[in-house]
Amino acid sequence: MKFRPCIDLHAGQVKQIVGSTLSDIKKTNDADDKSSNDDGANTAENNGDEPATNFATDRPASEYAEMYKRDGLTGGHVIMLGPGNVDAAKAALKAYPQGLQIGGGVNLSNAVTWLEAGASHIIVTSFVFRDGQIDMERLKSLSALVGKKRLVLDLSCRRKMGDTDHGPYYVVTDRWQKYTDVAVDRGTLERFAEFCDEFLVHGVENEGKRCGILEDLVVLLGECSPLPVTYAGGARGMDDLERVKKLGKGRVDLTIGSALDCFGGELSYDDVVAWHNEENTDGCSS
């Protein structure tokens, strides 16, 4: 099991936001997925046109990328939340070529450009979903264009309002507000695995809230995903790393964002890196 780092960009800044508030982003946001204070304080503000923000900083994205490179962390993701993020994203990729994946508005016309800019993989959601269903022709075309080994499919999901706590999780697109009819289950994961290298799954209801992981979703991913899969959403402490390791049977990686001290939280980034290194040393089962 690995810790997967992240860089979320909004209006050119590194931010950590509450995923369920993304409907407040202006409609100019054409990003594929989820979609201040200069000192990076935890504000959780929402001024009407902005999502609720836990953290914002003027520290450039490239510095975070350099930090991840220094610490040997691979497979992290850079997500562009709406317009105004291209320069910051390219700077991060330049600082850590082949070490980061890129998502947010990726499609057939720009996918190769992002790979040429240094991304190890492209991440897609909304581009390959239309009218509540997967557009297999788009998925196949994108996979053929960049190669299966360079494509990550984001299956970020949430339960539908009114469903029980044991109801299915459905893939959501368009700032995580539009439900598809595609449930995240064994059949879905096996079907899509033919066309991509990894899955990225945000537990939308817990994203950015530091309220704990969605344990049943982690269990599902560990049992059903035939590919490497990264879960993100709600992690708040070192115990969540151990919990994901146990529930996901060592097959589910974890992204931690808002809880980390480098994003204004209380969890030591250095401690998480140390845990990751211990888990991934030769001879260590993970």
Structural notes for this entry:
With 286 residues, the chain is of the alpha/beta class. It has 8 helices and 16 strands. Strands 1-16-15-14-10-7-6-5-2-3-4 form an 11-stranded mixed beta sheet. It has a 3-stranded antiparallel beta sheet with strand order 11-12-13, with no helix packed on it. A two-stranded antiparallel sheet has the order 8-9. β12 and β13 (178-183) form a beta hairpin. The protein is globular. The model is unreliable at 24-48 (pLDDT under 50).
How is this structure best summarized?
By secondary structure, the chain is of the alpha/beta class. The protein contains eight helices and 16 strands.
Strand content: 15-25%
Task: Give helix % range.
Answer: 25-40%
Low-confidence stretches: 24-48
So how many helices? Answer: 8
Sheet with the most strands? Answer: 11 strands, mixed
The span between the termini is 5 Å
Radius of gyration: 17 Å
Shape: globular
Output the structural class.
Answer: alpha/beta
Q: Which strand order do you get reading across the main beta sheet?
A: 1-16-15-14-10-7-6-5-2-3-4
Q: What integer is the average pLDDT?
A: 88
Number of strands: 16
Please trace the helix and strand order, writing H or E for each element: EEEEHEHEHEEEHEEEEHEHEHEH
Layout of helices and strands:
Elements: E1 3-4, E2 6-10, E3 13-17, E4 53-57, H1 61-70, E5 76-80, H2 86-95, E6 100-103, H3 111-116, E7 121-124, E8 129-130, E9 133-134, H4 136-146, E10 151-154, E11 157-158, E12 170-173, E13 178-183, H5 186-192, E14 198-202, H6 215-224, E15 229-232, H7 238-247, E16 252-255, H8 269-279
Helix pairs in contact: 1-2, 5-6
